[in-house]
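Quick one: structure for this chain?
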Amino acid sequence: MSPASPEAVAHDAVALWASAQVTALGTGDAPAYGSRAWSALPATDARRTVAILTAAEQWRRHTVRETWLDHLADTDPHEWFRIVTAEANAYARTIAGGLARRPTVAELDARRRASTARARPVTATPTWPPVAIPGRPGWVRTLTPDGRQLDRPRNHPQESPRDLAPPRYTRTARGAATA
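Got it. Here's what it folds into:
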């Protein structure tokens, strides 16, 4: 049978004495022991004593708990493990639902593969403006008058290149059209 937890003790004479001393000093809040605010207090200030008593009591409780846990680890390792992991288990129960709804790495990889499998080439159409080309910043794909796809920098004018434009006809002095 393992000893009871230090927190489960019905009364603790040392803790009661420390509490009575702090109450008797009647200072209200005191700065943390060893802090700059505590160091700035005069040696006769009762808040200094309250901080010392509070720190001593906290250290006493800490060492009692550590001693108890060390004894428990030697005598009942399963109970020790249950106690030291209780807070982590309680926190895990609060986040378990959210974690269960998140996709796993395998599911994310499958989604990524499926989304890239559906990729189709960028194609310009006659009724829409030029299309940006993925992976080539500043370049667009346009449709030439004869129906071919043409990649060009965005900052170039909208007119078609000379070699792709329809031929221009001019009239000669005699009235014949030439290309």
